[in-house]
Write a structure and sequence with these properties.
heterotrimer, A mainly alpha, B alpha/beta, C mainly alpha, A: mainly alpha, 12 helices, C: mainly alpha, 15 helices, globular
Chain lengths: 290, 408, 311
C-alpha cells in the first residue's frame, strides 16, 4: 500500500513539470492559436541559461532570472518569426515552431556539446526531507519542485482572476475577434501570452535541470507528455491543462509500478483514449478549432 | 573535410617519415587505404573521436616504421552519427569512391553489425572497434569480422565473482530495456546463479528515462548486497545522480558492467561511484610501455587516452601485423593471419597475453575490474583492482553460437 | 520543354554524374527513395492539407516488410517491394478510420502517437525485428525478367531499378492527383467546411489520401531497406517523420515534384555539410524557418517564379 502511495507522490513530482509546460502551452494556444512545438526547445534553452547563471550568481538567483531572460527571448522570437504568420495558414506556424524546436536544440548542442552537463543544486536542497523513513526518496529538492510548481500555478491563477491584465487574457482566450473589435490591441496580448508561456517553460527547465540533469534532448522527453496533458485537460482550458499535467504524471508513475516499460507508454495510451472517446478532454470547449 | 585534413597531415608526416627512412633506403610504394566509420557527431561523438585519435596515432607509428609491405598506410574517416543507414552509406562511399581496402568501426553495436555485413558483401575485412553486443562474435559472427572490445558476457564473468566475494550474492538488476540490456541481465544472472547467489529482482527501464526514483525505490526495499545498473550515457548520469541523492550507495554496493572514462568524466562529483569494468586504463604503473604511449598521446591530443583510443590504436596495428604476417592484401589470407595473432606488448599495452581467438574472432583482451575514485592526477578516476585475463573472462567458444565459414 | 529534356537526361545519367562530381552512385538511389517518401507524404500534406508527423511509421513498415520477406519468405526483390508496400497500406487502412475523424492538432498528435507505438514495437519485438540492432541478414536479389537475369548488387544497377519504380509510382500518384479524386483533395485543403457543404464526404476522401500516401511511403521504405540491406527502428521514429515534412516543405508542397527537390536538397546538404560541421542540422533548421517565413511555396515555387521572370 505505501509503495502505491510512494509511486503516486513520485508521479506527482514528474507531473509538476508537465503541469508547468502544459499551462504554458495552453496560454499560448488559447490566445494565439499556435501549437508551440518549440516549447521543449525553450525549456532546454531555459535550463542551460539557468546553468550559466547559476555558475555566476548561484542557484536561487538563476532560478529567478533565467525564466525572465528566456521570456525576453520569447518576445523577440514571437515578434520576428510568429507575428508574420498570424494571418496565414495555421499549418505554417506549426511548421515554424517545429523548425524552431530543432534550431533551439541544435544551438544548445553547438554551444555546450551533445553530452549532458552536470548541474549542482544547493546543499540544503539535496538532503532527503524525511530521512530514514519510507519516504526517503522525497528529497527536499523534489518537495521544492512541487512547491515551486504550486506557487507558479497559484500566481498565474491569481493573475488571471484578479488583475485587469488577467481579464484581458481570459477575454482574448474566449473570443479574440470580439475583443479586437472592442478596440483592444490583441497583438500585445499575444506577445504577453507567449512571454508568460515561455516563462513557465523556463522555470520548468531550471527545475528540471536540478532534478534530471542537463542535456540537449531533455526537452523532447518532457514535451510529449505535456501535449497529452494539454489534450487531456481540454484544449481551451488553462486549469484543465495544469491538472492534466499532474494526472499524466501520476498515471505514468503508477503504470511504472506494475511494468517499468509502461511509464513511457502511459501518456500515449492516455492520449489515444482521449482522442478516440472524448477529444475535448476533461474541461475543454467543444469546437475549439472551428 | 575530414578526409582532406587527414591526408594533409599524413602527407606532412610522410614527408618527415620518408626523410628519415631515406637513410634506410626503404621505398614508399602505393598507399594502403583503411576506412573508419564512427560517430563523430551526436551523443557518441566523444567515444568515436577517441577511436579515431588512437587510430591516427597508430597510422603514423606504422608509417614511421616503413608502412605495411612497403606501402604507406592512409586512414579515411567518415561520420555515421551512430545511424545505421548513414553508416552503411558512408562505408559504401569509402569503398566505391575512395577505394579502401580494409574497414574499421563502430561505437554502436547495431551499426557495427550492419558494417560487418556490408563489408562482407565487398569481401572486405572489417575490425569492430567499438560494438559490445555478444552477437558480433556470437550468432552474427562472420569470417571477415574481428572484434576488439569485450562483450557483455566477458564483463559479467570478470567482475561477477569479485562482487560476490566482496559484497555478497544477493543482487538487484536495473537495466535499459533493449537487447543489449537484456543480454547483460542474462549474463550477470547466469554468473551469480552459478556462484550460488540470487537475483532478487530485475527491472527493465526504457532508454532515455530520466526519473529512476520508482525503480530505485523497489531496489531499496529488496535490500540487495549489490545493485547492478547497466544504463549508459545520459541514463547512467541520471541514475547514478539519483542513487547519490537517495543515499543508496551507503546502503549497498553499486556496480555494473562496462564503464568508460568519458562517461565518468561527465558525471558530477557526487555521482562518481561504483564498481565497473574498463576495457583498458591509462594508468598502469606495472607496464612500462603504457607510460610512453600515454605521454605521447597526451602531448599530441592534450588529454588522456581512453579505452576507445586504445581500440583504434590496436585495430590499425592488428591490421598492419596481420598483413605483414600473411604477406598479402587478400582479405581471406589476412583474416586467417589474424586468427591467433598475439599483440606485442607495445600494442597490447597491458599485462598478459592478448590475442585474437580463432573460433569467434574475439580479441581476448584483459578486463580491468575496479572502482571509481579520484586519484592524485585529475584524470585518474578509476582504481584498477584486478586485470582479468581475456582467456578467463571469455565464454567457452561453444557457448557463443558462432560458426565461422570462409567463402568457398 | 528543354528544361524537361535536360532534367530527364540528368536523372538517367545520375550515377555517373555523381561519381564525376566526387560523390558516389548510391546517393542517387538515396535521393530518389526519400523523394518518393516525401511525395507520398505530400499527397496528404500539400494536397489534402493535413500535417502528419507519423508517416515514418509507413516508411518503417515498408522497410521491415521488405526485409522480412527477403529473409523468411522468398528471395525475390519485386515480392519484397510489393509486400512491404502492402504492409504499410494495410496499416494505413486500419488506422485511417480512427485518424480521419480528427482534425488539426488532434490529427497531428495522433500521428505522433501511432508512429511512436510502431517504433516501440520495432524496438521491443526483438525476435522478429532484431530490436535496437535492426533487421539484417537479407540482401536485394537479382531480377528475373523475361528470362534475363539482372544483377542488382551493384549500386548503379540498383539505381536504375529504383528509378524505374519511382517513375511508375510517380505516374500512379500523378494520375490520382490529376483526377476528380485529386480535385477533391484540393477542395479539402482549401476549405473543408465548404467541401462538406458541397456534398463531399470529407472523411472518405481523407481516408483515401491517407491510405495512398501511406502506401507510397511504404514503397519508399521497401526500396530503402533494399538499398542498405538493413532495417532499423529509427526509421519509424517521429523525428524521421519530421525530416519528411521538412523535405516536402522545402521542396515545395504545391508542386508535384517539389518534395523530390526537397529530398535532394536535404540529403545533398546533409552529405556536404556533415563533413564540414557537426551542426549542419542547425543550418538546415534555420533554412527551414526562413523558408516558412519567406518561401512557403518552397524551392520549386521559387524556381518557377525565377524562370518566369527571366522570360
Amino acid at each position: 500500500m505505501d509503495l502505491f502511495l510512494l509511486q503516486l507522490l513520485n508521479g506527482l513530482v514528474s507531473g509538476a513539470f508537465y503541469a508547468l509546460l502544459a499551462l504554458g502551452l495552453a496560454l499560448i494556444l488559447s490566445l494565439t492559436r499556435i501549437i508551440n512545438l518549440a516549447h521543449g526547445g525553450f525549456l532546454v534553452v531555459g535550463a542551460y541559461l539557468g546553468y550559466v547563471l547559476a555558475g555566476l550568481l548561484g542557484f536561487y538567483p538563476a532560478l529567478l532570472l533565467a525564466p525572465f531572460l528566456l521570456a525576453l527571448l520569447g518576445v523577440l522570437l514571437e515578434a520576428l518569426l510568429l507575428r508574420p504568420l498570424y494571418a496565414r495558414d495555421p499549418l505554417e506556424s506549426l511548421l515554424l515552431t517545429f523548425g524552431l524546436a530543432l534550431v533551439l536544440e541544435e544551438a544548445v548542442r553547438a554551444l555546450f556539446g551533445p553530452v549532458g552537463v552536470p548541474f549542482r543544486i544547493p546543499e540544503g536542497l539535496s538532503a532527503p526531507l524525511f530521512p530514514g523513513t519510507a519516504f526517503f526518496f522525497l528529497t527536499r529538492y523534489r518537495a521544492f519542485v512541487l512547491g515551486m510548481a504550486a506557487l507558479a500555478g497559484l500566481l498565474v491563477f491569481l493573475l488571471l482572476r484578479f488583475t485587469a491584465l488577467g481579464l484581458y487574457l481570459r477575454a482574448g482566450a474566449q473570443d479574440r475577434e470580439i475583443l479586437s473589435a472592442l478596440g483592444t490591441d490583441v497583438r500585445r496580448l499575444y506577445t504577453l501570452a507567449f512571454a508568460l508561456g515561455v516563462y513557465l517553460a523556463g522555470l520548468a527547465g531550471v527545475l528540471a535541470a536540478g532534478q534530471l540533469g542537463l542535456s540537449p534532448t531533455m526537452g523532447t522527453g518532457l514535451l510529449m507528455p505535456s501535449f497529452v496533458a494539454l489534450i487531456l485537460g481540454g484544449v481551451g482550458s488553462l486549469g484543465g491543462s495544469y491538472l492534466g499535467g499532474l494526472l499524466v504524471g501520476m498515471a505514468s508513475g503508477l503504470a511504472g509500478q506494475f511494468v517499468a516499460q509502461a511509464s513511457e507508454f502511459a501518456p500515449y495510451v492516455i492520449l489515444a483514449l482521449v482522442l478516440l472517446l472524448r477529444p475535448r478532454g476533461l474541461f475543454g470547449q467543444e469546437g475549439f478549432f472551428e | 573535410m575530414l578526409r582532406y585534413r587527414l591526408t594533409r597531415r599524413g602527407v606532412l608526416r610522410l614527408g618527415l617519415g620518408s626523410a628519415a627512412l631515406a637513410f634506410t633506403g626503404r621505398a614508399q610504394g602505393e598507399t594502403l587505404r583503411v576506412g573508419l566509420v564512427d560517430p563523430l557527431s551526436g551523443v557518441y561523438a566523444a567515444l568515436g573521436r577517441s577511436e579515431l585519435e588512437g587510430a591516427r596515432m597508430a597510422v603514423d607509428d606504422v608509417n614511421v616504421r616503413g608502412g605495411v609491405l612497403g606501402r604507406r598506410l592512409e586512414l579515411l574517416a567518415e561520420d555515421s552519427a551512430a545511424k545505421t543507414d548513414l553508416g552503411v552509406q558512408k562505408l559504401r562511399k569509402l569503398v566505391e569512391r575512395d577505394r579502401i581496402q580494409f574497414s574499421l568501426g563502430e561505437v554502436s553495436s547495431g551499426v557495427s553489425l550492419a558494417l560487418s555485413q556490408t563489408a562482407a558483401e565487398y569481401k572486405m575485412l572489417h575490425i569492430v572497434t567499438g560494438g559490445h553486443a555478444d552477437d558480433i562474435t556470437g550468432k552474427s559472427c562472420r569470417w571477415n569480422t574481428f572484434r576488439i572490445p569485450t562483450n557483455g558476457t566477458m564483463e559479467a564473468r570478470a567482475i561477477g565473482p569479485l562482487l560476490a566475494e566482496r559484497f555478497g550474492k544477493n543482487w538487484y538488476i536495473i537495466t535499459p530495456d533493449y537487447a543489449y540490456g537484456w543480454s547483460l541481465q542474462e549474463a550477470f544472472t547466469r554468473v551469480v546463479e552459478r556462484l550460488g547467489g540470487k537475483v532478487l529482482g530485475a527491472d527493465r527501464v526504457p532508454l532515455g528515462t530520466s526519473d529512476y526514483s520508482a525503480v530505485l525505490l523497489k531496489a531499496a526495499r529488496a535490500k540487495p548486497d549489490v545493485l547492478l545498473t547497466f544504463q549508459a550515457g545520459d541514463d547512467a548520469v541520471a541514475i547514478l545522480k539519483q542513487i547519490a541523492q537517495f543515499g543508496l550507495d551507503k546502503q549497498m554496493a553499486i556496480a555494473g558492467g562496462l564503464q568508460e572514462w568519458e562517461n565518468i568524466a561527465a558525471l558530477p562529483k557526487e555521482a562518481r561511484m561504483g564498481w565497473w569494468t574498463f576495457e583498458w586504463y591509462w594508468l598502469q604503473p606495472n607496464v612500462p610501455e603504457v607510460k610512453a604511449f600515454v605521454d605521447r598521446y597526451r602531448r599530441r591530443y592534450r588529454k588522456v587516452p581512453t579505452a576507445r583510443s586504445w581500440f583504434g590504436y590496436a585495430a590499425i596495428w592488428s591490421l598492419a601485423l596481420a598483413i605483414q604476417k600473411a604477406k598479402s592484401l587478400e582479405a581471406v589470407k589476412v583474416a586467417q593471419a589474424l586468427e591467433g595473432l598475439e599483440l606485442p606488448r607495445n600494442v597490447a599495452l597491458q599485462p598478459g597475453r592478448v590475442y585474437y581467438r580463432k573460433e569467434d574472432h574475439q580479441l581476448l583482451t584483459g578486463v580491468f575490474v575496479g572502482y571509481v575514485r579520484q586519484g592524485q592526477d585529475p584524470d585518474d578516476l578509476f582504481e584498477v583492482v584486478r586485470v582479468v585475463p581475456g582467456e578467463e573472462a571469455a565464454p567457452d567458444p561453444k557457448d557463443t553460437g558462432c560458426r565461422i565459414a570462409y567463402p568457398g | 520543354m528543354k528544361a524537361k529534356f535536360a532534367l530527364s537526361l540528368l536523372f538517367l545519367l545520375l550515377p555517373w554524374l555523381l561519381k564525376a562530381l566526387g560523390s558516389y552512385a548510391a546517393l542517387g538511389s538515396y535521393i530518389l527513395v526519400w523523394g518518393l517518401a516525401a511525395m507520398g507524404l505530400n499527397l496528404l500534406m500539400g494536397y489534402a492539407g493535413q500535417v502528419s508527423f507519423g508517416h515514418a511509421a509507413f516508411l518503417g513498415l515498408g522497410a521491415y516488410g521488405a526485409g522480412l520477406t527477403l529473409k523468411h519468405l522468398a528471395p525475390s526483390t519485386p515480392l519484397a517491394l510489393l509486400l512491404g508496400t502492402l504492409l504499410a497500406a494495410l496499416a494505413a487502412l486500419l488506422l485511417g478510420p480512427l485518424v480521419v475523424r480528427l482534425k488539426g492538432i488532434y490529427f497531428a498528435t495522433f500521428t505522433i502517437v501511432f508512429s511512436q507505438l510502431f517504433y516501440f514495437l520495432a524496438f521491443q519485438w526483438n525476435e522478429v525485428t532484431g530490436g535496437d540492432d535492426g533487421l539484417r541478414g537479407f540482401a536485394r536479389q537479382d531480377l528475373h525478367l523475361l528470362g534475363l537475369k539482372v544483377d542488382l548488387t551493384a549500386s548503379e544497377a540498383y539505381y536504375y531499378f529504383v528509378l524505374a519504380v519511382f517513375l511508375l509510382l510517380a505516374y500512379l500518384l500523378w494520375r490520382a492527383v490529376d483526377s476528380p479524386l485529386g480535385r477533391a483533395f484540393l477542395a479539402l485543403r482549401e476549405n473543408p467546411l465548404r467541401a462538406r457543404f458541397l456534398g463531399l464526404r470529407v472523411e472518405r476522401y481523407l481516408l483515401g489520401a491517407f491510405v495512398l500516401s501511406g502506401a507510397a511511403v511504404g514503397a519508399a521504405g521497401a526500396l530503402l531497406a533494399m538499398l542498405i540491406n538493413f532495417a532499423q527502428p529509427s526509421m519509424l521514429h517521429w523525428s524521421t517523420s519530421g525530416e519528411l515534412v521538412m523535405m516536402a516543405f522545402l521542396g515545395g508542397r504545391y508542386r508535384f515534384f517539389g518534395p523530390l527537390l526537397g529530398a535532394a536538397l536535404f540529403r545533398v546538404m546533409e552529405e556536404l555539410l556533415s563533413s564540414v560541421t557537426e551542426e549542419w542540422m542547425l543550418f538546415l533548421g534555420t533554412l527551414f524557418i526562413l523558408a516558412v517565413l519567406f518561401f512557403p511555396g518552397g524551392l520549386a515555387d521559387f524556381l518557377r517564379r525565377w524562370a518566369w521572370n527571366r522570360r
